[in-house]
Amino acid sequence: MKTGLILEGGAMRGMFTAGVLDVLMEQGITVDGMVGVSAGAVFGCNYKSHQIGRTIRYNTTYCNDKRYASFRNLLRTGNLYSEDFCYHEVPEKLDPFDDKAFRESPMDYFVVCTDVRTGDPIYHKCRTGDAEDVRWMEASASMPLAAKIVKIGHYGLLDGGVADSIPIRFFESIGYKRNLIILTQPKGFVKKKNPMLPAIRARYLRYPAFVEAVADRHERYNETLSYISMLEQSGKDYVIRPPIPLEIGAMERDPDQLRRVYETGRAVAQIQVDKIRAFLETAKAEAEE
């Protein structure tokens, strides 16, 4: 029985997740494996590489940089977030991603993408943190209408949250029976139908299965939240979530707003750190029996 960490996406709500993860790293809290979706994928990789503070640092440094994210990028390249700057310039030169530490960590790390041809989730295990793994992370975070379809091998991929926003059942299916789940919406949140669905239908006319996955995403998401609530109430899994709606834009340019959400994540984790540690210690003790 393995312990897992499941990271929901949510664009810049992911700063909440970054705050939680930094506290877990500072406290030396580890798990056997982790799976990240969308922002959870691109921010969560720093947990495996043990780079405390990196997510909030590079986001606050470059959130106002038009090379990082801008509508000019979207018009010129088809990507709101610049592929070259975000996934090459920053991790390779400006704020290096420690792929050596990532590779040497014993923790398994998966990311979730959506196959545009089938509308199904694709779960990819990132083993080395190399350029191809980073490409999978990019695909997981490539939001419909705001990013080009990412081609990897025979796949055409977009945002993993479309097909599987909170991959608890996937992790259970591969042996992760006790999990920490970091959500980016408060308790009681109910997802509604995507208001951009007409535009998505028009843009992805060639991919009807993907469009249908977008159309019924809210139903699958809400059902998953109900399942997670059951797991939480039974004590089988431990859920970390913001106390109130985070109210932050998908392309937030104010560093203070990013820090606010990040500090919210830190505060929640610091309050709960003893309970989190106890939950994992109990899970590991049960596994050894």
Automatic annotation (TrEMBL):
Q: Does the keyword Cell division apply?
A: no
Q: Give the residues annotated as active site.
A: 38, 159
Q: Which residues form a coiled coil?
A: none
Please give one Pfam family short name: DUF6363
Stretches that traverse the bilayer: none
Motif DGA/G extends across 159-161
What is this protein identified as? Answer: Phospholipase, patatin family
GO BP: any one term: lipid catabolic process
Which organism does this record belong to? Faecalibacterium duncaniae (strain DSM 17677 / JCM 31915 / A2-165) (Faecalibacterium prausnitzii)
Give the lineage: Bacteria, Bacillati, Bacillota, Clostridia, Eubacteriales
